[in-house]
Amino acid sequence: MSLARRDDRLHCYGDYLAWPEDRRYELVDGVAYLMAPAPDLIHQRVAGEIYFQLRRALERHDCVALIAPVDVRLPKGDEADDQVDSVVQPDVLVVCDPARLDHRGVRGAPDMVVEVLSPATAGHDHVLKRSLYERAGVREYWLVHPIDRIVTIYRLDAGRFRPALVQELSGVTAIAVLPGVTIDWDALVSQLPAA
Hints:
Shape: globular
Number of helices: 4
Number of strands: 15
Helix content: 10-25%
CATH architecture: Alpha-Beta Complex
Radius of gyration: 16 Å
Low-confidence stretches: none
Order of helices and strands: HEEHEEEEEEEHEEEEEEH
Largest sheet: 7 strands, mixed
Structural class: alpha+beta
């Protein structure tokens, strides 16, 4: 579960912007975690296909689908950008409020976040980021397990994630926060190596 930490200090977005671009970090409550090396091709195919399906489904919507790397700043209140202490780069996200989009990325909780799991990030995404996304108000959080071919779905209800819904990557799955939008898993799985 533990990704390498940059150091033992607490940081904010102002620090993050000053770091060299050759290493990527995410900030969670001020702790800087070194992001895993470039994802493998399976990860990229899964994230790319989910993004592609969302982008096409949202063409006539007010919502926009984005794919990493995009900085998502998650303020705890009305602090200035440079003081925000949680900045993440979800694999795929959907934002329905255009006021949350700016030249730096997204400020505030996306409506939907999808993380494609790898052995190096699974614990981090399941525990630390799930808690962060819940607190920030992400309305729907999906964890896609390409090796196990399952998706774990958390949906926000009254400020808390309901118990997870776990499904196989087959058929279609409706996105609760985007009525009428689904992900076709068969189209995605057909691009993966045989299990």
